[in-house]
Amino acid sequence: MPEVALRGIHVELRPLRPSDARSLGAILRDRRVTRLLPPRVRHENGKQFVTRVLREQRESQWPAFVIRPIGSDEVIGQIRFIASSPTERSAEVGYWIRRAYWGQGFGTDALRLICRFGFGSMVLHRIEATVVTGNNRSRRALKRVGFREEGRRRRSALLSDRWADEWVFGLLRGEIRGA
What we know:
The structure is a single chain. The chain has a single domain (about 5-170), classed as Aminopeptidase. The protein is about 30% helix and about 30% strand. The protein has six helices and eight strands. Helix 1 (about 20-30) crosses helix 4 (about 45-60). The longest helix is centred in the N-terminal third of the chain and has 15 residues, at about 45-60. The two termini are about 25 Å apart.
């Protein structure tokens, strides 16, 4: 796991710490942020989320980061590899950001950083992401980084009271676009 932060144009990614629970908990209380996230995440508070993610990180050795604007200590979100196949050198990325920072390039920058880290330091061949139908901001961020829409899984995501389709995106080594 990297001990130093990864720096982009708008954001810095630093390893997740137990002390991030309060900041991430405040974001998780915003139903507009969590409405399209998996049920497990929607029902966790900050401490539960951080404890689970740090445990999963220890077991898998896949990194988890908080997202901070350059020049600020404010935690505005998280990004991490949530599923992986070391044999196939692939991983899935998951992320969410405080609503006040939507549409300003923070998510795109964070995605680009973690993908560069994954392809470089972790020697990945492929990175995937899934997006619930209706999460158009996330779809646009993935496409700006170079992810390609590869297909749809019908009614595979359980939201509060309904099943929703998920779009699968993939990015191969050498396909990252942008700064």
